[in-house]
Amino acid sequence: MTTQELSTQDKDLIWHPFAPLLSPFEYIPLDSAKGVYLHTSDGKTIIDTVSSWWVNIHGHSNETLAKALYDQAMQMEHAIFAGFTHEPAVRLAQNLMTLLPEGFSKVFFSDNGSTSIEVALKMSLQYWYNKGNTNKTKVVALDGAYHGDTFGAMSVSGRGGFTAPFFPFLFEVDFIDFPTEENKEQIYLQFEKLVAHEDCSTFIFEPLIQGSGGMRMYSPEILDRLIAIAQQHDVICIADEVMTGFGRTGKVLATDHVSHKPDLICLSKGITGGTMPLGITACNAKIEDAFRSDSYAKALLHGHSYTGNPLACAVANASFEIFTSDTCQQNIQRVHTKHLAFAEKLKAYDNIEKIRVQGTIIAFDLKGFGETGYESSARQKIYPYFLERGILIRPLGNVIYLMPPYIITNEELDTVYQEILTFLADH
Ligand SMILES: Cc1ncc(COP(=O)(O)O)c(C=O)c1O
User: Fold this and answer.
1) Cα(25) to centroid(ligand 1), Å
2) pLDDT the model gives residue 94
3) Does 372 score more than 90 pLDDT?
4) Does residue 371 register a pLDDT over 80?
5) Alpha-carbon 345 to chain mean position
6) Residue 277 Cα: closest atom of ligand 1
7) Cα separation values, 42 from 7, 12, 92, 130, 132, Å
8) Pair 89, 169 in one domain
9) Ligand 1 centre from 267 Cα, in Å?
């Protein structure tokens, strides 16, 4: 197919995510992707500074991951995970246990970030049901949260444009204001009141950073305190590490920055290095214990056709080896250090504010663009501006952020930084 034919067929047949059907943007045909680069069908090269929706941590078309995928596909591509097991899944469970907090004892496989959240919510709610406490049905979440697009995940996400058509169908959740250094004492009080209530079962949060909510960051000290308060009242804590897991915040998990550990952790995105879809819900022994029964009435009766997919597990195991290597860990620290230095440079620009860095993520807000939502005018302007210059930046409203694959070189980072400075000088 020619590039033109591809575009036309796409327009006729395909419904793309998160966009109006009559999108103002053309969908750019891609031929290939390698390292930090996307290669378009018409011969252009684009630096992927968003790791293709935050999944790609080792660069595109990584040969080790590709080989793991090929080898596994030749051996066993998929098999029903009810009544059977296999080495890639067991090895992945063992590998993940080395990264998860002490006391974690089980992993449950699903297909993506949203399903890992659904499973976590069901485990938490059924935990209380299995214990015979049917009062505990309430979930507390953070205002502005984003936990995915399925109904449970939408229910615990902030109410806004993404979920507006479904408001009547979402279950009721208590939202606390987003915590900051200024309002934290008030938030602790607000939070304590909610979790102390006898119907409160669960606290779910994106640790340290709300991604889709605008790369909003809050301190480990605040998170630690919130988890501590929730656990004082025996409320189950779910850390949504779908975006933050696998090094994004500078440590393996964002919850590695705090001393009070959640009871459930959701992982996806970076787990396969961005090669295969996979979701994991991991739980500690406290949760597991409530399900330790031979009765179907107490079982988690949940599963997906592709649960425990051997291809995804094999790639995740190969990705684990790369991720835990010294080179990868050094790259994470190198990207972090580069971002910190760039943040210093950004301070000279008075058309931006709230410059923030956490691990391999840097973000700042543009001033003077009015509305801050997903469909803000800033996005309409910034996205094409950088694409024309060979850089993929997808602003969240007026928030510009970078979340590159860890293999991005200093020179590639400097190219991106320089284009951002040029943009800021001109706008
Ligand atoms: C924190 C968080 N949770 C859940 C999800 C949903 O993941 P998925 O898109 O794989 O369903 C996302 C996706 O961006 C996310 O950032």
Assistant:
1) 23
2) 98
3) no
4) no
5) 28
6) 10
7) 12, 20, 39, 57, 62
8) yes
9) 9
Domain encompassing residue 395 = 3-61+326-426
Q: Is 112 in the pocket of ligand 1 (CB under 6 A)?
A: yes
Residue 199 and residue 130 share a domain: yes
Ligand 1: residue whose CA is nearest its atom 9: 113
Instruction: Tell me what the mean pLDDT of segment 147-167 comes to.
Output: 96
Distance 273 CA to ligand 1 centre (A): 15
- Residue 47, pLDDT > 80, answer yes
CB-ligand 1 contact for 148 (6 Å cutoff): yes
Instruction: Point out the domain boundary residue: 268, 298, 323.
Output: 323
Lowest mean pLDDT among 34-43, 288-297, 362-371: 362-371
pLDDT at position 80, please? 98
Query: 380 pLDDT exceeds 90?
Result: no
- Distance, in Å, from the CA atom of 285 to the CA atom of 291, rounded to the nearest integer, reads 10
User: What string of DSSP letters covers 65-110?
Assistant: HHHHHHHHHHH-S---SSS---HHHHHHHHHHHHHSPTTEEEEEEE
pLDDT at 25: 76
d(CA 303, ligand 1 centre) in Å: 19
- 9 shares its domain with 71: no
Cα separation, 12 vs 35, whole angstroms: 31
By most ligand atoms within 8 Å of CB, the mutation choice from 56, 121, 147 for ligand 1 is: 147
CATH code, 398: 3.90.1150.10
Give 117-174 as a 3 state SS string.
Answer: HHHHHHHHHHHHHHCCCCCCCEEEEECCCCCCCCHHHHHCCCCCCCCHHHHHHCCCCE
Looking only at the bridges linking them, the beta strands covering 104-110 and 279-284 are antiparallel
E strands in 230-347: 236-240, 264-267, 279-284
Q: Is 114 in the pocket of ligand 1 (CB under 6 A)?
A: yes
Mean pLDDT for the stretch of residues 265-294: 98
